[in-house]
Amino acid sequence: MSEPDWSPLTGFRVAVTSARRADELAALLTRRGATVTSAAAIEMVPLPDDDELRHRTQALIDEPPNIVVATTGIGLRGWMAAADGWGLAPELTAALSKARVVSRGPKATGALRAAGLPEEWSPDSESSREVLHYLLEGGIAGARIAVQLHGATADWDPFPEFLDELRAAGADVVPIRVYRWHPAPRHGDFDALVVGIAEEKFDAVSFTSAPAVASVLMRAQELGVEDELLAALRGSVHAMCVGPVTARPLVRLGVPTSAPERMRLGALARHITDELPLLQARTVRVAGHLLEIRGNCVLVDGAVKAMSPAAMATIRALAQHPGAVVSRADLLRALPGSGTDTHAVETAVLRLRTALGDKKMVATVVKRGYRLPVDEAYAS
């Protein structure tokens, strides 16, 4: 038997918002057949120019913490590298070595050990909530706690509840925002990506950081498409997040999200590969053929059939109610643009039949419209 001409993500359109390792994630998804559009949602503030980080580093040297919480490996390594650039690395290491050290996960643990700061404890789950419970159970009233955070934007701060609960328990909390972010510049690729999500031009959008989520939401508001973007994310555009911290801003807004068990880039790519076809593909048996409808193509008996935008809009509209008649007026409303000539529907149906390869797969119902002559319909 010949090999199929499609991959697991063939026909699916995925938006990538990552600032770091975007090319790697895009390559993983493209290799699996996806059509990927990438535009970084955020830009990093260079560490040597971060006056807040330098000020708080010096403050911890002057008054060492009792407890250090490391949340990310890249963040801790970046902090130590920045301190080294300022000539403060020996003093910082000496100050932190006097503290109890808690790590959120294996990457942070590795960075701590490389810096000569072995951890006291780390949860198996990589959960910030477990870290919080561990600290609260041990009692932290009066303790000075340095918390290395994921990052922040001017309008968004990570882990607000985490810090608030530490303070409520009586701790003196020093947040260390090791890498901070600005939203991507206006009038560029990122704006186009946000509008594309709002217009449902993607089947999924991937997020690898909560600041990227915040940036997308803020930019949608600035562009006047916030309602449309949230509607899309609550409907046909699936939000795929690297982990629960990244997903949190969306969950608060009632947006369904999904994430892999392990918070890793490769795991996110595999998760999208496994989940998106289950969430988005629609499969029906029509006129003796197995028809699978994807984002921008259709598989007929396992063979990829390229579709024009009008043909895709038509097949999606017909597949909304397999076997039922869809009027020409309804099909016209589904077509791209805002045309009023029903002749466009006849042209779209003709092209759809040609692309499918069997004109019997789209039946004409005289004076009423068109339908898919379904043998057996089922959602997949």
From TrEMBL:
CDD domains: HemD, trans_reg_C. Keywords: DNA-binding, Lyase. Residues 281-374 bind DNA. GO terms for molecular function: DNA binding; uroporphyrinogen-III synthase activity. Gene3D superfamilies: 3.40.50.10090, Winged helix-like DNA-binding domain superfamily/Winged helix DNA-binding domain. Its EC number is 4.2.1.75. GO terms for biological process: phosphorelay signal transduction system; regulation of DNA-templated transcription; uroporphyrinogen III biosynthetic process. It comes from the Bacteria. It is an enzyme of class 4 (lyase). Residues 281-374 form the OmpR/PhoB-type domain. This is Bifunctional uroporphyrinogen-III synthetase/response regulator domain protein. It comes from Mycolicibacterium obuense.
